[in-house]
Predict the structure.
Amino acid sequence: MAERQHEEFKVNGEELLKKVKSLVQEGNIRRITIQNKDGKSLIEIPLTVGVIGVVLAPTLAAVGAIAALVTECTITVEREK
């Protein structure tokens, strides 16, 4: 099994959707977790190889809705190393 690496990004609500889309396009992401400023997990997005476009559209719509509601959040990314 491949080793996994974790990264965190602090973003404001306006940047959230753009950052998630760019992370998904990188391709080596296995899971994205979005937390509010208090550390409460708002959504977890498991990503598998080949998840793109139409399949991901409803999830990105949910991320857009979260972005409208939060001022600050943390994106935790789990990558394949």
